[in-house]
């Protein structure tokens, strides 16, 4: 079979559709319209690239994908697809010229199975062959380090704990184009806190004294309790505008910024206030503060980001909660009172780091 001569730009749509199909399958069952449409798009791109007797080969190298000639693919979905393949011990993906939607469906099922299940089944290659797929092949890492159709190597994590890699992966996910901008904003906040603490080291001596923490699942009335208790002038709570921009500029435009953002939210989702009323001065959770350290349920609630979810659940979040404590110290130093009223469903699964 002849080797395909498609360029990195030619392969970009195929890579994106494969990543999207795997993402859709993680969220929806087999046969769901979203999954079917993703598979149809991927098959169409595959057929257009491979032709009748061609072959598309993608190698997993470092943190991404590359062509047979070593050219690196830097397109959306490349890091995500490479992560899925690497986590299952796969170092090379081959797509033959006889492109069939069923073959692609079998491939996506392999990419969404747990790595330990594939190891027990004899590896990704063996599991794929057992499905009867003919137009697609997975080559794995052999014990001597070569690529081949052998027993899968131990599956490693496909997402590192480095924020830069995490942001890159998030930015490649569908409907997450604004995450790159959020990363810059989060870095700005972190830098502002760092500058403030460096100029006023006494901030680190601030005592975060016996905070009151409201714990509860969403839609159970915790917001009403939060708003009620925040009326006590002896307690320090977080208004929504301050959660978005905790460190002030001069002049201070934060309340107007927040109001503008909420007008956009209410225009896009006019029924949202019926579920969760939000105003600039309304009390808010500290999930935005945790987001500065990229440790927040906010991303999973806002986007389809299974890779972030898996990273978040598998990672000790103690360091992120230390960062939250430092931000609370800075905020109460800027303005009191000094006993905090906190609230977020996220704390239910992070009681260790919280305490």
Topology record:
Elements: H1 8-27, H2 33-50, E1 55-61, E2 64-66, E3 72-73, H3 78-87, E4 90-96, H4 101-111, H5 115-120, H6 124-130, E5 136-141, E6 147-148, H7 163-172, H8 179-199, E7 212-214, H9 222-229, H10 240-244, H11 254-268, H12 272-275, H13 287-291, H14 298-302, H15 306-314, H16 318-334, E8 341-343, H17 351-354
Parallel strand pairs: 7-8
Antiparallel strand pairs: 1-2, 1-4, 2-3, 4-5, 5-6
Task: Give an overview of the whole structure.
The chain is of the alpha+beta class. 49% of the residues lie in helices and 9% in strands. The chain contains 17 helices and 8 strands. The chain has helices at 8-27, 33-50, 78-87, 101-111, 115-120, 124-130, 163-172, 179-199, 222-229, 240-244, 254-268, 272-275, 287-291, 298-302, 306-314, 318-334, 351-354, and strands at 55-61, 64-66, 72-73, 90-96, 136-141, 147-148, 212-214, 341-343. The protein is elongated, with a radius of gyration of 24 Å. The N and C termini lie far apart (61 Å).
